[in-house]
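Throughout our pipeline, every protein is held as a single compact record rather than as scattered files. The remainder of this section carries one protein's record, kept here as part of the documentation.

===
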Amino acid sequence: MTAGQKYVVGITDHMIGKPDLEADVLGPDVEIDFFASTDASALTPDRLARLDALMVWGARLQAPTIAHLTRCKGVVRYGVGYEKIDLAALAAAGIPFANNPDYGTEEVADHALAMILSLHRRLWEHDHRSRGHAAGWQVHSLKPLARSNRATVGVVGVGRIGTAVVNRLKPFGFRILGYDPGQPPGHEKAIGYERPERLDELFSQADIVTLHCPANAVTRGILNADGLARLKPGSIIVNTARGELIPDLDALEQSLRSGHIAAAAIDTLIQEPPGDHSLLTAWRNREDWLAGRLVITPHNAFYSDHAAIEMRRNAAKTVRILLDEGRLRNQITDES
C-alpha cells in the first residue's frame, strides 16, 4: 500500500446500525464501502472490484458476485455458519474465507441450557395449563417429571459451544453423553462426559438431545424422519445450531403429535422467517395439543449486548490482521 492510499473493505449488510465500530477497529487507512443490502444484485461489479476485503452478514455470496472480487484478499463472515457462501467459487477465485467462531459461546450455551431445563421441568406446559385450572392447584402437576440426576442429556457436537453446555449441565446432576468424531480420544475425560461409539447409542439413551454441530455433508438432516424415529420415545430435542439439522417439519409434527417426541426447542429454522406449515400454525395459535411443547426463538441464541460488540470487533480484527500480515485466522477451506 503506497503512502496516502487506503485499503477498501466492503460490508454487505449489518444487523446493528452503521459500521462505526468496525471503522474504529480497522483504522484510518481503511475506507469502508457499506452496501447495506442482503440482495446480491445490489453488490455492483464496480464497487466489488475495488475491495481489498469483504465482510458478510446475511447476504448470499455466490459465483456471479465472487467473479467481480478481482482485488479481494479475503472474505470474512460475521457469524459462524456459512451455508450462504459458495466456498468452491471462492476457492476457484483464489480468495480465502473465514468465519467468526469466537464470539457468543456463553450466550448460545446459556440459551440451550435454558431450553433444556425449561422443557425438562415442563415449565411452559404448566404455564399454559395453569391458566385453565379452576379447581385444585398443585394436583395438576404434569407427569412424567423426572429428577435431573435421573435423566440423560446427549450433546451432539462437543466443540466450543457443546463443551460450554456440558460444563453448565454438570452441576445439575444429569448424566451426559457426548458424540463428536472430530474430538480426539480422551477429550471426554478432560471435559467430563461419556462417549458412545455410535450416534445411535446416544439417540437410544438420551432423554434430551441438544445439537451443537455445524451443517455439513455428514450432519444435514441428522434429525430427519429417520433420525427422529431413532430417538428414545418421549425424548426432548433442542437445536441452537443449524436449521438444516432438522429439515422436515412434517416429520417433526408427526413425532410431536404421536408423543414420540415429548417437546422441542428450536432457535434456528431452515426457512427464516418461518413460512406456512401446519406445525407452525399450531405453534402460533397455541393449540392445546402443542402448547408448551414447542418453543421457537428467532435465531438469537447468540445474542447479548456484549456478544454483538464482540462479534463485530472480532470480525473486523480478522480483516485487520489480513491486511497487515496477509494471513486469515479462522480460515475455512471446505465443509468437512
Notes: Residues 7 and 30 are 5 Å apart (CA to CA).
